[in-house]
Amino acid sequence: MRGLVGFLIVCLCSAPALGAEPEKPAATVARGGKKGALKVDPNDIVGTGKKRFSQKDEELIIRDFFKDRRDGFYVDAGCAFPRSYSTTFYLESRLGWSGIGIDAVPSYAEGWKKLRPRGKFVNYLVTDRSGEEDTFYEADYAPISSIHERIAGPKHKTVKVPTITLNDLLEQNGVEKVDFVSMDIEGAQLAALRAFDIEKYRPELLCVEVWLPDQKEIVAYFEKHGYERIVDYAKYDWVNWYFAPKDHPRLAEIAARENARPKPTPGPSAAAPAASATPAASAIPDESATPATTP
Predict the structure, then answer these.
(1) Is the pLDDT score of 19 beyond 50?
(2) Which among 11, 31, 126, 133 is positioned nearest to 80, based on CA atoms?
(3) Which of 8, 96, 272, 287 shows the greatest Cβ crowding within 10 Å of its Cβ?
(4) Whether 28 contacts 50, CB under 8 Å
């Protein structure tokens, strides 16, 4: 989602630097708008759960796919904040996962060290080659920093960041198995995928922010390697695309469940959801705060 937000650069002129304002907690209202706890069905977390940390419903979708499995391993490329808007904080803090967070913005390192004891933060630009330095546009509102200057908005600084491929990163850290990959790297997704040996590591689920110009090539990449898009998740998240091996048993389970849901009553045609504007100053996360303890 952060990538689409970047296009609304007119909203960025007054955005403070990373960590400058108090955090606005992720929504804790259950589906249907009713306050209070609802019993979460482990076979339908996306339908009965409530998000806590991710920007949209990514967290629920990921939990749903893995059915709240414990002790997995994640790779979070473009990880940004350690907790707010994170697709992997719930996995680590509630389910005991460990993993690696990668971001080209070095200022996230301190927060990761404090809030992500089972995660390792590394400062790289994930792309299709290692051992070089590429130009990177670090925005005043750090989450929309990008390899594309137009995405970083009018307030940014130009820096050089070391590059790395996912293959080299995983090899250097002795990783042999990856369960989940999150990829939100503001325009570098296709290059990063091309240099990733997905058949070697065979992640069960990938969450990729897919930009319109790259859609066909990204789908072709996954099809070539025996993966398919989980289209049933599109109604819960229209920005990120989710991919899993074609023979994964969860695909049939998810499809059957979604087909069995009551169909919504037809009503007046509604416009497609618009991209959220950049958070107001009061909503910029402060990752120095003590993490929530609500399960």
Answers:
(1) no
(2) 126
(3) 287
(4) yes
Cβ neighbour number for residue 194 with a 10 Å cutoff: 13
Q: How many residues in total does the chain contain?
A: 295
Distance of CA 43 to the CA centre of its chain: 22
For the chain, what are the domain ranges? 2-256
Residue of 200, 183, 173 lying closest to 98 (CA atoms): 173
Residue 144, φ and ψ in degrees, nearest 5: -100, 15
Superfamily of domain 2-256: Vaccinia Virus protein VP39 (3.40.50.150)
Q: What DSSP assignment string belongs to 34-58?
A: --S--PPPTT-HHHH---SSSSSSH
Whether 113 contacts 88, CB under 8 Å:
no
Containing 73, the helix (H) or strand (E) segment is strand 73-77
Instruction: State which amino acid sits at residue 149.
Output: E
pTM over 0.85: no
Dihedral sign of CA atoms 169, 171, 172, 177 in order: positive
CA nearest neighbour of 242 among 57, 47, 102: 57
Cα distances (angstroms) measured from residue 260 to each of 154, 186, 228, 257: 48, 36, 21, 5
Contacts of 130 (CB under 8 A, 6+ apart): 163, 164, 165, 168
Whether residue 285 has pLDDT greater than 70: no
| Angle in degrees, CA 14, 18, 24, rounded to 5 | 85
Residue 36, number of CB atoms within 10 A of its CB: 8
pLDDT tens for each residue of 166-216: 999 999 999 999 999 999 987 789 999 999 999 999 999 999 999 888 999
Question: Using alpha carbons only, what angle is made at residue 279 by residues 273 and 283, rounded to the nearest 5 degrees?
Answer: 130
- Taking alpha carbons only, the member of 221, 147, 213 closest to residue 184 is 147
